[in-house]
Amino acid sequence: MIMIITPDETFRKAMVLHFQEKEYELSIPERRQDVPSLVEKHAPDVIVLDMSIADPNGPTVLKDLRGTGYTGKIVVISGPSNRPLTVDIHQQKVDQVMRKSPTDPIPSLMDQLESIIRVMFREEISKKAYDHYNKRLGQHGKDWEDWFKAKKEILKNPTDGRAPSNGPQQP
């Protein structure tokens, strides 16, 4: 499951559409104050946290996540104005920082974000794909199917059968 936390409605809608088309399960908190309880309830595999959020701000949400014991992966989206926060961001053990500026084309940002997430989970996906391959008794010809199936399984919450949702519109 991928949790998306951003105040940028256009960017949020683009992420939801992009990841829904790829059949990822999503969680979009209605309010940032709901993040800790939703993280505890859904245990997302990765959180995409836009540092431009306010009340509470990005660094506070990040500290709260790590302070409550969340050990999942975190991708921080940071604009040029957030450069002074870079040291603080890395002290909170984020997995990746993605730079975003207002002039970046949305499709390119979506591809970059998905690529970051795939790289973070590459080893886990590879192991699961190999398990699928072995279950097929080592028959070649469906390796890509094994890989895509594993990718979807890794980023889904297997105990929650809900379909992907765009969730509430205001984080």
Give a description of the structure.
The chain has 171 residues and is an alpha/beta fold. The chain has 7 helices and 5 strands; from the N terminus they run βαβαβαβαβααα. A 5-stranded parallel beta sheet has the order 2-1-3-4-5, with helices on both faces. α1 (9-21) packs across α5. It is globular, with a radius of gyration of 16 Å.
Entry keywords:
single chain; 171 residues; alpha/beta; 5-stranded parallel sheet; 7 helices; disordered C terminus
In short:
The chain is an alpha/beta fold and 171 residues long.
Through-space gap between termini: 17 Å
Indicate the proportion of strand residues.
Answer: 5-15%
Question: What is the number of helical segments per DSSP (H or I, 4+ residues)?
Answer: 7
The count of β-strands is 5
Order of helices and strands: EHEHEHEHEHHH
What spatial order of strands do you see in the largest sheet?
2-1-3-4-5
Low-confidence stretches: 157-171
Oligomer state equals single chain
Taking all Cα atoms into account, the compactness measure Rg is 16 Å
Largest sheet: 5 strands, parallel
Tell me, rounded to a whole number, the average pLDDT.
Answer: 81
